[in-house]
């Protein structure tokens, strides 16, 4: 008789190395929250405020000569606002996604005008040229590059004529970014397990979704290989050690949220049991235990740019918990606890996305839209 553990291991290997997972047996995609029109308008306003606001600006810029000492709008003329390059890129993603969901919203005209200002052939050619500059091999890798792919995917999903035109304009930069990530993954020997921009798991998830939209099988192959090399054997990830003081991504939850994309529900469930064994398996008499698991992190100062990261952590935890629940079989006993924790995190973080402080206002709107529009579940 075949040992059941052998069956689990075989399913895990086949699902990581084989074809795209079948999601028919996944848990119902119940959401912690939804994106209402008034919230969409509020989040759009945050992006519109900063999309072309050049200062303050925090640039990661290698100067190869005195000629490179130029203002942000000359260095990266499409994405120079929202304090930094990656925030400006995903601010564009926010507007493109909201236009797809609410094409007739009051903010739609302003959003289209702002996007048209950025998406010109001249601007995107300059962006691609900047990336190819000497000493910039690691520029915005992987976080900002992954958001650029997410932006490209969102444009590709839209049937709006403007979005199709902008997608074509963005194409050369999309190609450059995808090639950079693919080349890097081939050389990357170890995963990056931090709670900020350098983390691999979150970026891999965005790249996986982009590859699904574009049909890029080489990207999918490399990501499956990364899942096998970096994460397949991981066990007992300690949420007790999270968060670090400036996290905006959970290393443990982001890894699980990536792996649920790569694995079938039947393979993901046992992998998750080994990786996060502390997730409660609730039944009606023990439902109170689910409410106590994984409380939201505490934000002490939203005017501090690093301490404000914790609001982003609560938002990203919420969508990752939902994603993990979505990746499990429908009958899995952990779904209830995962969704309950997701709801607590959303309730704690969404009221703080106000723009009162630019330290959070320039980027938290994107995280709020990613969560409430279920971008990781319903691309």
> How many distinct domains?
1
**Strand count:** 0
Task: Return Rg in Å.
Answer: 20 Å
* C-alpha end-to-end distance: 42 Å
- H/I helix tally: 17
The helix content, as a percent range, equals 55-70%
Strand content: under 5%
Low-pLDDT parts are 1-24
Mean pLDDT: 91
Largest sheet: none
Topology:
Layout: H1 4-17, H2 37-50, H3 72-75, H4 85-101, H5 108-118, H6 121-131, H7 143-157, H8 161-187, H9 200-214, H10 217-231, H11 251-262, H12 265-275, H13 287-291, H14 309-327, H15 335-349, H16 358-361, H17 364-372
Describe it for me?
By secondary structure, this protein is an all-alpha fold. The chain has one domain. It contains 17 helices and no strands. The chain has helices spanning 4-17, 37-50, 72-75, 85-101, 108-118, 121-131, 143-157, 161-187, 200-214, 217-231, 251-262, 265-275, 287-291, 309-327, 335-349, 358-361, 364-372. Helix 11 packs antiparallel against helix 12 and helix 14 packs antiparallel against helix 15. The longest helix is centred in the middle third of the chain and has 27 residues, at 161-187. The radius of gyration is 20 Å and the shape is globular. The model is unreliable at 1-24 (pLDDT under 50).
């Amino acid at each position: 008789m075949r040992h059941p553990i052998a069956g689990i291991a075989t399913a895990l290997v086949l699902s990581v190395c084989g074809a795209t997972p079948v999601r028919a047996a996944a848990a119902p995609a119940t959401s912690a929250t939804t994106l209402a029109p008034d919230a969409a308008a509020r989040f759009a306003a945050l992006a519109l405020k900063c999309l072309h606001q050049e200062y303050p600006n925090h640039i990661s810029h290698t100067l190869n000569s005195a000629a490179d000492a130029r203002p942000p709008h000359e260095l990266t003329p499409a994405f120079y606002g929202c304090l930094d390059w990656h925030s400006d890129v995903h601010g564009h993603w926010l507007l493109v996604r909201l236009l797809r969901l609410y094409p007739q919203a009051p903010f739609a005209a302003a959003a289209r005008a702002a996007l048209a200002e950025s998406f010109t052939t001249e601007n995107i050619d300059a962006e691609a040229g900047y990336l190819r500059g000497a000493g910039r091999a690691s520029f915005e890798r992987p976080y900002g590059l992954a958001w650029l792919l997410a932006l490209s995917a969102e444009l590709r999903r839209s049937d709006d004529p403007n979005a199709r035109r902008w997608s074509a304009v963005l194409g050369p930069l999309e190609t450059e970014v995808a090639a950079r990530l693919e080349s890097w993954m081939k050389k990357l020997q170890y995963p990056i397990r931090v709670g900020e921009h350098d983390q691999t798991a979150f970026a891999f998830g965005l790249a996986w979704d982009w590859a699904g939209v574009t049909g890029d099988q080489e990207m999918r192959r490399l990501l499956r290989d990364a899942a096998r090399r970096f994460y397949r054997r991981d066990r007992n990830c300690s949420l007790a050690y999270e968060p670090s003081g400036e996290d905006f991504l959970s290393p443990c939850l982001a890894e699980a949220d990536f792996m649920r994309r790569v694995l079938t529900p039947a393979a993901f469930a046992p992998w998750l049991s080994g990786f996060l064994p502390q997730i409660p398996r609730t039944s009606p008499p023990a439902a109170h235990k689910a409410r106590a698991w994984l409380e939201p992190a505490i934000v002490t100062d939203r005017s501090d740019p690093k301490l404000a990261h914790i609001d982003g952590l609560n938002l990203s935890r919420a969508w990752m918990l939902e994603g993990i629940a979505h990746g499990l079989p429908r009958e899995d006993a952990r779904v209830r606890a995962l969704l309950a924790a997701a709801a607590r995190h959303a309730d704690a973080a969404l009221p703080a996305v106000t723009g009162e402080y630019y330290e959070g206002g320039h980027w938290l709107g994107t995280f709020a839209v990613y969560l409430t529009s279920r971008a990781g579940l319903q691309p």
